[in-house]
TrEMBL record:
Listed GO MF terms: serine-type carboxypeptidase activity
Gene Ontology terms describing biological process: proteolysis
Source species taxonomy: Bacteria, Bacillati, Actinomycetota, Coriobacteriia, Coriobacteriales
Protein name: Peptidase S10
Amino acid sequence: MVEESAEKVAGAQAPRACAAGFATVPAERCAEVPESATARLTWTDGERSIDYAATAGHVEVRDDAGALLGRMFSLSYVAVDADGRPDASRPVTFAYNGGPGSSSVPINFGGIGPRRVVTDGTRHLRADAPLEDNPHTLLAESDVVFLDALGTGWSRLAEDVDPKKVFCTDGDADAFARAICAWLTESGRWSSPLYLFGESYGTIRNSVLMRLLGERGVQLTGVVMLSAVLNTVPLLCPGEDAYYVGMMPTMAAGAQFFGKAGAGVDEDEWFDRAMAFAEDELAPALLRGDRLGAEREVAEGLASYLGLSVEHVLSRHLRVDLLDFRTHVLADEGRVCGRLDVRYVSDGPSPVQGTNDWIAEEDAADDALNGAWVLSMRRFCADVLGYEGPARYLGNNYGKVGESWDWSHEAPGLGRVATPNVALDVALALRRNPTCKLAIIGGRFDAATPWENVVRDMSGQFLSEGLKERVSWYRVGSGHMAYTDDAALAQMGADMHEFYEKR
């Protein structure tokens, strides 16, 4: 990772680190970021073409009294006519990743932006990986604005703002709501259909935003949840049985991919079988604990899905966690599989680095892709747009943002809860605005936000049949960053065309 730079930006002093270690600038100088830069470009997939304006710049985030909270970096792609004018009837989609602590580079240059880094199966990308027009870009359906959360990318907090005010579930959503409204005002796009597109923690952000924007008089047309996590209990409370149930089908998909299980079975059918086993057999067995008299019988079934020995599963009393699976499924080859996408693998760590915390933080999928994505984004901004940001771009600032994140949430109807289930926010937003449509996309190989979890969380909201019809489900054969797989990206492109066309 590039070391912190002390360079000056646009004539201003370098950002000063606040007590919590976050990059900030004094409120009176926060506007002294680089001037925005725009280029007129053309996207084509060989059959269609779209002229568009690509703009890099910052959006002010201000509170109700007008005080500056910070500046949120954005990369926007807006279709224009021959005279350079946008079409206000086109949708505008605000897109972002999660973390907490991730910039929007992956979903932009890895996924749905008009230019995409060419992937190479599940192999690590070279620094000079080519950038090409993305044949399945969301620009074909909507103008797209990619936003970097405050504290990530080139987004900045004002100096006098306590990071705790923003680096929390509700404060983060509030900041994004303000940035979205500011962009719509500055761009004159309040008459456009409005969409949100969030990935990972971005789906928690989406869930709160769906409700929050509605409460502020901003009506959404649609929301896309990619690699969704709604109930934070399995994520934040180790040992919860819901964790093992949700993780099991994804680990089964990985075992099949590595040839350890599921030979000769269609991948989707295998995943469906694993889902049924997890919910019909594993979940009741875990609930009964040592009162279960058939532990070996269940262990035999679980082992057959995970590609592990029955004795190994029994030694865990049916509770095989992801770290256990990652370090054992390919142990005979001396390799460890990924978390964001279990198909990605790397050599196992040195024995002196074999602590659980160390291995849990390492991820082959992250290593394989993020460096090339960030480098391509910086080249695009500098070489194509003529935009020169600070020397350091915080593509991943988990250590400063995520590790100190306040997960508590003012849950509708419940008050403040420490580990929220924001499916409640989604259900409330849909009840309040039944014209809003919701797309949920997930990958079979995503062990960061497993598919079973979001299916279970949404089913627990008991939506009416009319509201259920507003929800579209799309499962793809990829991982957390579902777009890294060419076939999955093509499927996503077709799915998004269907979703955006839906009335």
